[in-house]
Amino acid sequence: MSDQQPPLLPTNAIAPDESLQAKTEHWFEYPVKAQPHHTDYGGIVWHGSYLAWMEEARVECLSSIGMDFADLVKLGCDLPVVELSVRYHRPLRMGMSAIVKTRMSYSTGVRMDWNYQIQSPDGSELYLTGQVTLVTVDREKGKIMRQLPPAVKDALLKLTR
Amino acid sequence: MSDQQPPLLPTNAIAPDESLQAKTEHWFEYPVKAQPHHTDYGGIVWHGSYLAWMEEARVECLSSIGMDFADLVKLGCDLPVVELSVRYHRPLRMGMSAIVKTRMSYSTGVRMDWNYQIQSPDGSELYLTGQVTLVTVDREKGKIMRQLPPAVKDALLKLTR
Amino acid sequence: MSDQQPPLLPTNAIAPDESLQAKTEHWFEYPVKAQPHHTDYGGIVWHGSYLAWMEEARVECLSSIGMDFADLVKLGCDLPVVELSVRYHRPLRMGMSAIVKTRMSYSTGVRMDWNYQIQSPDGSELYLTGQVTLVTVDREKGKIMRQLPPAVKDALLKLTR
Amino acid sequence: MSDQQPPLLPTNAIAPDESLQAKTEHWFEYPVKAQPHHTDYGGIVWHGSYLAWMEEARVECLSSIGMDFADLVKLGCDLPVVELSVRYHRPLRMGMSAIVKTRMSYSTGVRMDWNYQIQSPDGSELYLTGQVTLVTVDREKGKIMRQLPPAVKDALLKLTR
């Protein structure tokens, strides 16, 4: 792949190859715990550490609907993050457990939007809300894919039934 | 500090203790290089690694106007991130250098907004744009400060002249 | 705490406050999975990512014998790493699962030695072997503790029975 | 590359393809600063953060003798870490600067040994000593290379003159 990467964005001008719309109906829940390496000098989880948890929740959610992320990459497809927004409501302190809740919606052919809520296990405290947008990229060409690999399409179609 | 942290947000209801407004006039520039540990399986910088660079640029920008971040923390003040939004335009590949450009505006008494652009050294390529919002928190009480520590206020006031 | 930190080492000259000897008899097992953020450009787990897993296994092993790490820190005690050695036998690729096995021995009053093996879930592949040494430090004074906090001593004594 | 990776070790049984011996005569010096994201709950640099700095120093040292690490990877060669040992002498606190000193010796055909000292800028304080061993691996085959790529050999030969 050349060093001159084509731009990943804007994605809004892209015409989807089909009218596939899919979304996970329920929140997928992924438990996490604030370990020492997640914390910073304040004894709370460093703001960037949450992104690793959000990625893990995404990978495990895809896995739960039959899409193995490592297989996807082997098929020549990648799902880079192109947009990210996060609100940090309350800090999570070392040793505390939490649930990363995520829900995916896929509707424009190439964009996948993931919504997030990170909560206390009993649901009474809200630590973070956020949204992450991924696009489907052809790893070889470094370009956004207009045609999804059949395996990905099939997994997503399962969601719409 | 108790485990029951007070919420950091919303910040919009907060009345500033004074009408202090400050912003850095020019972009502060912080050079970075994509090292192996920043990359992921795709050979590009992992999306979370940029947050570390953005934090470093912030700390060095504050330092350039006379605010030492470690001193600030010793004074009992913290500046946690409460909001974050990022657009990833082009991937940065292993070995590539870039400039993190940042500019701060402080205007509501307790919020500091930082704008970001990450560019190629010659300015021809744009990799990332983003915004990060910090609030000033009293570390002891875990609460948003309505009175800035004098040292912080002085450093910020210097910006307005 | 002043910037002039006292040295953490050497630890060999330290006379233990008592003849407490303890070790976990069985390997504690902690399952992990190689997520995208753990990998580097090679598609394998970055060598430093293993240290986070090893720390997590340590914290969960202590927890399993009744020592909550966050509580320990609140009691004014810390357990910094003072020595570390690792051999990387085989790479772990993105998407692969593994078991971090660890076993602790505590015998010189202030040192805790942790042995590690990271293996495939079926035990047929060995990815990493390592050893990590911690010391018990008084957080206030920044000095190695010669007297363990009673709660820690009690938890360790349980191991010897 | 298959999931069944060949073992990277033992390396001691490997006969070097030639009697090439090389080492950097002087310590290469790489300045670092403890940023918030490097720290943990203790306000000191997390023990794993040092590995990122050590890698950066290695990459920049190789670059200083004409070996661009990203180019090396593009040539199909990789330099994974196979062994690592570190002693943490004193903690580095948030905001402190330090110098990562490293020196490479290459003598057995496939192993590169890197020695490390992390010191205060004035040399009066020693924070860390360590050693890291790399091997040269053919990325395609996932096997240790017995023949170095000519570009690598040339760069190393320059060191012996």
In words, what does this structure look like?
The structure is a homotetramer of 161-residue chains. With 161 residues, chain A is an alpha+beta fold. Chain A has one domain (22-160): Thiol Ester Dehydrase, Chain A. The first copy, chain A, contains 3 helices and 9 strands; from the N terminus they run E-E-H-H-E-E-E-E-E-E-E-H. In chain A, strands 1, 2, 4, 5, 6 and 7 form a 6-stranded antiparallel beta sheet that branches. Chain A starts with 21 loop residues before the first strand and ends with a helix. The interface between C and D is medium-sized, with 34 and 33 residues.
Total domain units of chain A:
1
Oligomer: homotetramer
In round numbers, the mean pLDDT of chain A is: 86
Strand content of chain A: 25-35%
Radius of gyration of chain A, taken over Cα atoms and rounded to an integer in Å: 17 Å
Say what the CATH topology of chain A is. Thiol Ester Dehydrase, Chain A
Number of strands of chain A: 9
CATH architecture field of chain A: Roll
- Give the SSE string of chain A: EEHHEEEEEEEH
What low-confidence regions of chain A span 5 or more consecutive residues with pLDDT below 50? 1-6, 9-17
What does the largest sheet of chain A look like?
6 strands, antiparallel
Helix content of chain A: 10-25%
- For the record, the CATH class of chain A is Alpha Beta
- Briefly note the structural class of the backbone of chain A: alpha+beta
Largest interface: A-B, 33 and 34 residues
Number of helices of chain A: 3
CATH superfamily of chain A: Hotdog Thioesterase
What spatial form of chain A do the alpha-carbon principal axes imply?
A: elongated
Terminus-to-terminus distance of chain A: 38 Å
